[in-house]
Each structure stands twice: as C-alpha cells, then as structure tokens.
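Quick one, tokens below:
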C-alpha cells in the first residue's frame, strides 16, 4: 500500500513540475515590474555653462536623449573644461575619461588633416546652418566616397560649424596696412590666410582667448560674433572687421567606442536619428547667436563695426588666393586625397548655401 502511494505521489510531482517551471519562467520574462537597464553617461565640453551652446544647445540635446530613451539614458554635463581641457577632450573621450565630448578638431593641429579642408578660405559659407550641414555631410562623404575616417578610435555622432567669422580687435583693422603685424588668435585652417594677410597668429582654445586679450598677449581674434557675448569678448575688444571669406571652424560631438558598443540597439538608434537633426539645430543656434552677439557688442559695449570697401576686399582676396593651392599640394605630398576633398566640400557648400540662404 505504501509502495503504491509512494509511486503515485512521485508520478504526480514529475508531471506537475514542468507546468510549475514553465509558469515561473513565463512570468519572469513578462514581468512588467522588472526594471530595464539604465545608463549614466558623462559629457565633457569646453563651453562655459552660460554660453548658448550649453544653455540652449547641449542641454536641449541631453533632454531629448533622456526623453526619447524614456529615461534609460541619463547624461551628466561637465561644462567649462571642468572634466577635460579643450585640447584634452578628444583623447579623453577615446580613452574613456568621458563617455561623450564636444570639441573642435583644430584644437589638436595636424591630428585630422582632411578636416582642415572645411576651414579653408574661399567657400560660399553663407551662414552657420549651411556650414554645419556641409561639415556633417562632408565627414560622411569622405568616409564613404574616399574611404577615409580620421576618427576611427571614437564613435562620431555629428559635426557642426560656426559659419563665417570676423576679426575682432583692440585696434582697427580696416585695411592691410592696419592688419600688418597685428597679433591675432586663430586656429586650424584660419591660420594660413591670416598670415598671408600679414598678421601674426597664435593658436589657442576659445576658453583661453579672453585672458590673452585682457593681458595684451594678442591684439585680436578671428572668430564668430557670438563669442562677443558668450565668451565676454566684447569686454576686451573694441572693433569688428567683417571678413566672412576668412573663417569657418568645425566642431564635433563624439562618444567613447566602448560606451557606444555597450548601448542596446534601440538606444543606438535614438542617437542615430538625432544626429542629422542636431547638426542642423546647432547650426541654427549659431546663426542666430552670431547676429545677437554683434548686436550685443555694439549696443552694450559701443564696439565699432567695419565693412571692407570693394577695392580693399579685392586686395585681401588676392593675398589669400594661394592658401588653398598650397594646402592641397602639402596634403597630396603626404599621400592624402586633398584635391578630391576640397572638390567634395565645394559641392556640398554650394548645395547647402543655396538650400539655407536666409539664416
């Protein structure tokens, strides 16, 4: 009797066990209470918290990332070089000191030679929107058409650019005679044309420019007018000479490759869908604040604004004409497809200058 009871009891348990186990597994897989994985990422930038690129640009991008990932990605912003210096951001992101960084390729001269082509003089470069879309699409085209990626050790999110900039100085630079010998802060591709015009250039991050101007280490700076307010340069310069044909500086938002690889595909898709959108959005912000910065400098600090007359502008253009040819020869001698790069950028510059003429 006991033997039969023992047999039937074990048979019942054996038959019941898969049902119990299956219910348990299904309940675990479908458990609505189980939390999804979250990611806390750091973002390093050289712009101060008060500058519009942080207040209206980076903060909006962060909010959108958190919103579109339903809070699964949280980004901690470290502005004003508080985590990494301007020259350190690229290598700091590549090395994992920060998960994300925004910086300027020309802050590390010679490291990204083909990117210098975007900052050469002579493009239409009508505003920051067209310049930003040219840089953003240009990187993708260089990678696709020419098979070159100068940023292989990080994940590139997107590029944007300043668009045209002006000479802002402590003494007038209305002609070549006044510019000759003037000590000017400049970076990247803006250095050769200024030197052709007779200025003496000094390369430094924007974050160091206020002090250099205040202490008399330089006489002026070639930069977009938004810096008059965002970096308080209106306090240390008195004159603006309009030189849109001289200036364009490219910026980038990059992510540590290991961080990128750790993100689930759906979160990676969120970043991808935002890249084109914010390349445009950042360009739009820059275009608007370029106008606001000049107005601020003139209205609040009494700065004087100069336009070169036609004859004087022609003299400047003739002086800088060899810069592009010199750059192409130098890079071609190094085995780089420099002429193809410049032709590609000219094509995109013409396209986006026509597409976004009114910013």
């Amino acid at each position: 009797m006991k033997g039969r009871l023992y047999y039937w009891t074990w048979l019942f348990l054996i038959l019941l066990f898969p049902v119990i186990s299956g219910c348990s597994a299904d309940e675990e897989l479908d458990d609505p209470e189980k939390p999804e994985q979250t990611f806390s990422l750091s973002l390093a930038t050289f712009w101060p918290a008060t500058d519009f690129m942080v207040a209206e640009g980076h903060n909006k991008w962060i909010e959108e990332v958190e919103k579109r990932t339903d809070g699964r990605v949280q980004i901690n912003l470290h502005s004003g070089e508080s985590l990494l210096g301007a020259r350190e951001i690229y290598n700091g992101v590549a090395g994992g000191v920060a998960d994300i960084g925004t910086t300027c390729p020309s802050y590390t001269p010679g490291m990204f030679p083909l990117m210098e082509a975007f900052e050469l003089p002579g493009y239409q470069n009508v505003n920051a929107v067209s310049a930003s879309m040219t840089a953003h699409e240009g990187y993708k085209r260089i990678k696709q058409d020419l098979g070159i990626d100068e940023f292989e050790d990080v994940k590139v999110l997107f590029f944007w650019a300043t668009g045209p900039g002006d000479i802002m100085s402590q003494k007038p630079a209305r002609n070549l005679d006044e510019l000759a010998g003037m000590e000017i802060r400049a970076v990247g591709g803006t250095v050769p044309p200024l030197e052709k015009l007779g200025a003496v250039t000094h390369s430094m991050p924007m974050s160091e420019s206020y002090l250099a101007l205040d202490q008399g280490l330089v006489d002026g700076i070639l930069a977009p007018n938004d810096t008059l307010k965002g970096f308080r340069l209106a306090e240390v310069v008195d004159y603006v000479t309009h030189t849109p044909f001289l200036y364009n500086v490219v910026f980038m938002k990059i992510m540590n490759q290991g961080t990128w690889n750790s993100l689930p595909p759906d979160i990676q898709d969120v970043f991808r869908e935002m890249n084109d959108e914010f390349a445009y959005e950042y360009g739009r912000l820059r275009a608007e604040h370029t106008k606001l910065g000049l107005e601020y400098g003139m209205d609040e600090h009494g700065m004087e604004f100069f336009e070169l007359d036609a004859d004087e502008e022609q003299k400047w253009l003739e002086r800088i004409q060899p810069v592009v040819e010199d750059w192409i020869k130098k890079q071609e001698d190094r085995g780089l497809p420099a002429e193809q790069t410049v032709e590609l950028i000219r094509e995109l510059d013409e396209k986006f200058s026509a597409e976004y003429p009114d910013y």
